[in-house]
């Protein structure tokens, strides 16, 4: 039997908790991504891929978007992010990372960068 890669059932409750408790930066970016607003592409928030949960995921483009807050800038956070990036890259998923402050300081630039990766 083939192992399920996306939205692993064991992580369903954790994904739900994360969706109901978006960070302020995630909430701002989600307003621009939801309802296929960006180039008609559907995004999912708090989507699991194997044991990892990414902030946003576009299945059509195999693109994950991660917003990095303070926890990502610790030694443990950086190691976890590196392992996740390596795993996702091996699965053919591209990862875009933005610091939370970028969402607040220049959302238009972040959106423009994301749009470069929204290929059919």
For this entry, give a set of tags.
single chain, 120 residues, alpha+beta, four-stranded mixed β-sheet, 42% helix
Please describe what this structure looks like:
This protein is of the alpha+beta class and 120 residues long. The chain has a domain at 27-42 and 69-114. It is 42% helix and 21% strand. It has five helices and four strands, in the order ααβββαβαα. It has helices at residues 12-20, 24-33, 75-90, 100-105, 107-115; strands spanning 44-49, 52-58, 63-68, 94-99. A four-stranded mixed sheet has the order 1-2-3-4, with helices on both faces.
The counted number of beta strands is 4
Portion of residues in helices? 40-55%
Q: Rg to the nearest angstrom?
A: 14 Å
Query: What string gives the helices and strands in order?
Result: HHEEEHEHH
Q: Helix count, per DSSP? A: 5
Shape: globular
Structural class: alpha+beta
Q: What does the largest sheet look like?
A: 4 strands, mixed
Span of the ends, CA to CA: 30 Å
Rounded mean pLDDT is 88
Uncertain segments of ≥5 residues (pLDDT<50)?
none
Beta-strand portion reads: 15-25%
- Strand order across the largest sheet: 1-2-3-4
